[in-house]
Automatic annotation (TrEMBL):
Species annotation: Haploplasma axanthum
Histidine kinase domain: residues covered: 129-341
Its membrane topology: Multi-pass membrane protein
Keyword Phosphoprotein attached: yes
Name used for this protein in its record: Heme sensor protein HssS
EC main group: transferase
Pfam families: HAMP, HATPase_c, HisKA
Molecular function via GO: phosphorelay sensor kinase activity
SMART domains per UniProt: HAMP, HATPase_c, HisKA
Cited function: Member of the two-component regulatory system HssS/HssR involved in intracellular heme homeostasis and tempering of staphylococcal virulence. HssS functions as a heme sensor histidine kinase which is autophosphorylated at a histidine residue and transfers its phosphate group to an aspartate residue of HssR. HssR/HssS activates the expression of hrtAB, an efflux pump, in response to extracellular heme, hemin, hemoglobin or blood.
Top-level taxon in the UniProt lineage: Bacteria
Length: 341
């Protein structure tokens, strides 16, 4: 892209240089020709020629002025468009057609405006969603804390309200942690602090860390984990497994089974996590990596819709891939592929 832009600039400079040289050469030829003609003609004929030259000069100046006005009008459109962008109006578009260099600038300008508009929409959506997610637990904590001030409240109700405050506090803490982690990952360009460790053992440890969640629902696991020595960032991949296995537990039915397989080839590691939960429709699958998107909005208390955004970013940083297969009522399967360095 950079070489293409440089080539375009060189072509523009070359055109102007050749145009200047052509005008200079043409001017020299005309002067030489006039000098030769003047030496051959009479005074009467000379007056006629001079009047013709003055008329031609005036016409030339007018034509030059008109051409310049057309060119400057296009440049002024570009100037006004840039002014609109600087004032935050990313909906402005240009349609510059001549010369060809301005057409290229116009196309690049429209592409830039489109990208800025999309970024602005994402930013506004993020602020709106974050504000909503932040407000919900705060309102709950404040409301139940106020109820606890009632001296006639029974011990049972008091314990119930304290549990709600505790859970909402945890939700708020998790939201803050996920926002910080996602922000850190999005500003990170490469994976650092890599080391060798056993990927199968890490997955087992993540399952144990989530034991409270799956024991409550009496969920069992079918594990097919090959022993794999992997070179990567252990902390990042722990976030990956915690989120994916946590989601599988979250959306699985009671007394169901989650299947997790881990295998490798010469160049990559493949992990498969399959649950028997509620599943997703096609539209939900398209949006599952969007920030704050939740498949089941009625169960939004289960999470904040950032887990799979974090998963996708970790996969991208690791130069891997993630695919999902799901149908309503038939569970969901995530297939993760990680390259072996």
């Amino acid at each position: 892209m950079k070489n293409k832009k440089q080539k375009g600039n060189i072509n523009l400079y070359l055109k102007f240089t050749l145009l200047f040289l052509f005008i200079m050469l043409l001017s020299g030829l005309i002067v030489s020709l006039l000098a030769f003609i003047f030496s051959l003609i009479s005074n009467k004929e000379m007056g006629f020629i001079l009047r013709a030259l003055v008329a031609t000069t005036v016409i030339g100046v007018l034509l030059t002025f008109l051409v310049s006005r057309i060119f400057l009008r296009e440049v002024n459109k570009l100037k006004r468009g840039m002014q609109e962008i600087s004032e935050g109006n990313f909906d402005v578009r240009l349609d510059l057609k001549h010369p060809s260099e301005l057409k290229s600038i116009s196309d690049n300008f429209n592409l830039m405006a489109k990208e800025l508009s999309a970024t602005q929409i994402l930013r506004n959506d993020f602020i709106s969603n974050f504000s909503h997610e932040l407000k919900t637990p705060i309102v709950a904590i404040r409301g139940f804390a106020k109820l606890l001030q009632n001296p006639n409240l029974s011990e049972e109700k008091r314990k119930e309200f304290l549990d709600i405050i505790f859970n909402e506090s945890n939700r708020l803490s998790q939201l803050s942690s996920n926002i910080l982690l996602l922000t850190k990952l999005e500003s990170q360009g490469i994976v650092i602090e890599k080391k060798e460790y056993y990927l199968d053992e890490q997955i087992r440890q993540c399952i144990l860390l989530l034991s409270k969640e799956w024991e409550t629902k009496n969920i069992s696991f079918n594990l097919g984990l090959n022993k794999i020595n992997y070179y990567g960032n252990e902390e990042l991949l722990q976030h990956l497994w915690i989120n994916l296995i946590g989601n599988a537990i979250k959306f699985s039915k009671k007394d169901s089974m989650i299947k997790i397989y881990l295998e490798e080839s010469d160049n990559e590691v493949i992990a498969t996590i399959k649950d028997s939960g509620i599943g997703m429709d096609t539209e939900s699958i398209k949006r599952i990596y969007d920030r704050f998107f939740q498949v089941d909005s009625n169960n939004s208390a289960y999470g904040n819709g950032l887990g799979l955004s974090i998963v996708k970013r970790i996969i991208d940083l690791s130069n891997g891939t993630i695919n999902v297969e799901s149908k309503i009522g038939n569970g969901t399967t995530f297939i993760i592929t990680l390259p072996k360095d």
